[in-house]
Design a protein that fits this description.
Bound molecules: 2-acetamido-2-deoxy-beta-D-glucopyranose, zinc ion
Distance between the termini: 37 Å
Radius of gyration: 26 Å
Strand content: 15-25%
Helix content: 25-40%
Largest sheet: 9 strands, mixed
Number of helices: 14
Length: about 550
C-alpha cells in the first residue's frame, strides 16, 4: 500500500513539475524513476572482485566490467558513451549548439574494500536516470516518436526487484530520439563515472576526476605506485598499449569554457538527513581539512616500582590531549551551549575534530608508556575557524606537555582549504528539491511554512489531479549541509562552478556492506536531479 502511495506521489510530482510539454513523457519517466536506478544499483553492486563482498578497485576485472555496464546504460539513456584511458566512463548528450557549455554530472564507481552499493554509484546511476528523463521530455517536445513506455514487474516484498530478465534494468531511448532531444536543449549534459575516488590501489585522491580536471599530472600521480610496485604510468601504458601516456592523460582535461558547472549527487555518509527525516539536502561546502601527527615522549618505567608522583606518563598526556581536542571542537558530555567562544553554538561551520589513530610504546600492562603517537584530523567549512582551532589545540598541547614534563612535537601532514559550492547551483538544487517535496512523498518532508511556491515554478503550470487543488503547496525544510568527506566535486572546483545534493542513508553508515539508501529516496533523488536538468537545459522551460 505504501509503495502504491509513493508511486502516486511521484507521478503527482512529475505532473506538477513538468506539465509544460504535455503529459505524455510521464508514462515514461515515472516508471523509470521508480525502477531503473534501484535495479541498476543492485546489479552494479553484484559486480565485484571478491566473493560475498563488494570491491572494485582501479582497473581490476570487476572495475572494467562495471565500466562496460555503465557505458551501456548511458547509451540506453540516449548518450554517446565511451571509456577513457584512465577508466572514466563518459556519457554525452549534446545540446542544440555543440559549442554551448554543458552541465557536467558525475561521481565515482570504484569502491573501498568491503564497500557498499551506494557510495559513488548512487550519483552515477541517478545521473543516468535524470539524463534519460531529460532526453525523453526533450524528444517528445521535439515531436519524436518513442517506443512503448517501460513496463516493470512489480517489486517483491523485500523491496528487491524480482526479475531482472529481458534487459529489464534499462529502457532504451533510440538514437534518433536522442538527436531530436538535442534540438531542444540549450546546453548539453556530460556525465562522467569517475574511475577512482577512494584511492585504494594507488593511495591517490580523486584519480579519475583529476584527469578530467587536468590536475592529475601536476599532482604527481603518474609516479604513484601500487602495492605491486608498478607506477600509475606503467599501469596505464600496459593497459592502453600506448608507448607514452602523459600527453594522452593531459588530453583528457575538459576545457573550463566547455562547462556550465558540475553537479554531484552523493549519499550523505552521515546521520543528519535521517535525523531530520528528510530524503534530500543541499551541500554548501566541502570542508577544509588539517591532518597532523603528534609525538609525545615521556619517561618509560616499571608500573610497579615508580611512584605516581614524578611520573612522565606519555599516555596520560595523550589522554588529556584527546579529551581537550574533543572539548574544544564542541564534542563530549562537557558541551558548553555557548560553544566555549571558539566555535559557533549552532554548528554551522561544520567543525569536527578526531583522534583516530593512537600508538602506545611499548604497550605493555606493566610498563609506564614511554612514547605515544597520535593523529589529529580537524575539518571545517571555515578555513579561518579551522586555523584558529588548529593553533589553539597546538598551544594547548604545548601547555599540557609542559605541565606534565613530557616532550611533544606536532607535525602537520596535510592541509586542504574548504571548497564552497556555487550559490546559483545551490539555489537551483534547492528549488528542484522543493518541487519534488511539494508532494507527500512517503511523508518524508516536513513543511516549515505554508507559503506558496509560485516563484519557484518559473511560469510552469502546475497541473494537479482533481481533488488536489485545494491543498496548499507548502515550503519544506531543505537542510543545508557541510560535507565533511572529500568528493570528486573538490577536484572539479578549480575548473568550474560546482554543487552537490546529498541523499539520506541509513544510520549514516558508509564504506561498509551495511550502507543503505531507501529505494524511494533513490527515486526522489533522480526526480529532483531531473527537475534541475529540465529547468537548466530544456529550451522551452524558461
Ligand atoms: C556532440 O558534440 C561534439 C562536439 O562538441 C561532437 O564531436 C559530437 O560528434 C556530437 N555528437 C553528436 C551525437 O552529434
Ligand atoms: C583555546 O580556546 C579556548 C576557548 O575559547 C580558550 O579558553 C583557551 O584559552 C584557548 N587556549 C589557548 C591555548 O589559546
Ligand atoms: C621522541 O623520541 C624519539 C626516539 O628517541 C625521537 O626520535 C623523537 O625525536 C622524540 N620526539 C620528541 C618530540 O621528543
Ligand atoms: Zn564517494
Amino acid at each position: 500500500m505504501r509503495r502504491v502511495e509513493r508511486a502516486a506521489a511521484l507521478a503527482l510530482f512529475i505532473l506538477c513539475a513538468c506539465a509544460i510539454e504535455g503529459r505524455q513523457h510521464l508514462n515514461y519517466i515515472t516508471p523509470i524513476f521508480q525502477h531503473e536506478p534501484n535495479l541498476q544499483l543492485s546489479l552494479l553492486g553484484k559486480i565485484s572482485d571478491t566473493e560475498g563482498s563488494l570491491a572494485r578497485t582501479f582497473l581490476s576485472p570487476a572495475h572494467q566490467r562495471a565500466a562496460d555496464q555503465l557505458r551501456q546504460w548511458m547509451v540506453d539513456a540516449g548518450m554517446e558513451a565511451w571509456i577513457d584511458l584512465v577508466g572514466n566512463v563518459h556519457g554525452r548528450l549534446n545540446g542544440s549548439d555543440p559549442e554551448a557549455p554543458s552541465l557536467l554530472l558525475g561521481s565515482h564507481y570504484d569502491t573501498v574494500l568491503d564497500g557498499g552499493n551506494f557510495d559513488g554509484a548512487l550519483g552515477i546511476i541517478v545521473g543516468i536516470a535524470a539524463t534519460k528523463a531529460l532526453a525523453i521530455q526533450a524528444a517528445l517536445a521535439a515531436g519524436a516518436q518513442l517506443p512503448a513506455p517501460p513496463a516493470y514487474p512489480p517489486a517483491n516484498p523485500e523491496g528487491e526487484q524480482g526479475s531482472q530478465a529481458e534487459g529489464g534494468s534499462s529502457w532504451v531511448l533510440p538514437p534518433a530520439a536522442a538527436q531530436a532531444a538535442s534540438s531542444r536543449l540549450r546546453g548539453g549534459v556530460r556525465l562522467v563515472a569517475f574511475s577512482d575516488e577512494e584511492g585504494v590501489r594507488f593511495q591517490s585522491t580523486f584519480l579519475g576526476s583529476r584527469a578530467v580536471a587536468g590536475s592529475l599530472i601536476e599532482a604527481g600521480m603518474l609516479a604513484a605506485r601500487d602495492s605491486g610496485g608498478a607506477t600509475l604510468q606503467q599501469v596505464l601504458q600496459q593497459h592502453s598499449g600506448l608507448g607514452q601516456v602523459a600527453a594522452e592523460v593531459d588530453g583528457l582535461a575538459l576545457p573550463p569554457a566547455s562547462l556550465r558547472g558540475y553537479v554531484e549527487v552523493h549519499m550523505e555518509q552521515g546521520p543528519v538527513l535521517e535525523r531530520r527525516q528528510v530524503p534530500l539536502g543541499v551541500v554548501s561546502a566541502i570542508a577544509g581539512q588539517t591532518r597532523a601527527w603528534l609525538v609525545i615522549n615521556g619517561t618509560q618505567g616499571h608500573a610497579g616500582t615508580v611512584p605516581m608522583r614524578g611520573r612522565a606518563d606519555a599516555l596520560a598526556a595523550a589522554a588529556e590531549v584527546v579529551s581537550t581536542v574533543e572539548r574544544r571542537c564542541g564534542g563530549g558530555p562537557y558541551l558548553d551551549p555557548n560553544g566555549q567562544g571558539i566555535i559557533p553554538a549552532d554548528d554551522s561551520e561544520g567543525l569536527v575534530c578526531s583522534v583516530g589513530d593512537l600508538r602506545v610504546w611499548p604497550g605493555a600492562s606493566n610498563v609506564i608508556p614511554g612514547s605515544v603517537q597520535l593523529s589529529l584530523d580537524i575539518r571545517s567549512k571555515s578555513d579561518v575557524l579551522r586555523q584558529r582551532v588548529v593553533s589553539n589545540i597546538s598551544r594547548s598541547i604545548a601547555e599540557i606537555c609542559a605541565v606534565r614534563g613530557v616532550s611533544c612535537s606536532v607535525k602537520r601532514t596535510h592541509d586542504a582549504a574548504a571548497v564552497l559550492c556555487d550559490p546559483g547551483i545551490m539555489q537551483g538544487l534547492e528549488q528542484a528539491i522543493q518541487a519534488v517535496a511539494r508532494q507527500p512523498w512517503g511523508g518524508s518532508f516536513t513543511a516549515t511554512s505554508s507559503s506558496r511556491l509560485g516563484d519557484d515554478l518559473e511560469g510552469q503550470t502546475c497541473v494537479l489531479p482533481e481533488g488536489q487543488e485545494a491543498e496548499e503547496p507548502a515550503k519544506v525544510e531543505v537542510p543545508v549541509l557541510v560535507s565533511g568527506a572529500g568528493h570528486d566535486a573538490m577536484a572539479l572546483a578549480p575548473i568550474t562552478k560546482m554543487g552537490m545534493m546529498f541523499v539520506r542513508c541509513r544510520g549514516g553508515v558508509s564504506h561498509s556492506p551495511a550502507e543503505h539508501v531507501a529505494p524511494e529516496d533513490v527515486s526522489v533523488a533522480a526526480a529532483a536531479l531531473a527537475h534541475f536538468l529540465v529547468t537548466e537545459l530544456l529550451a522551452s522551460s524558461r
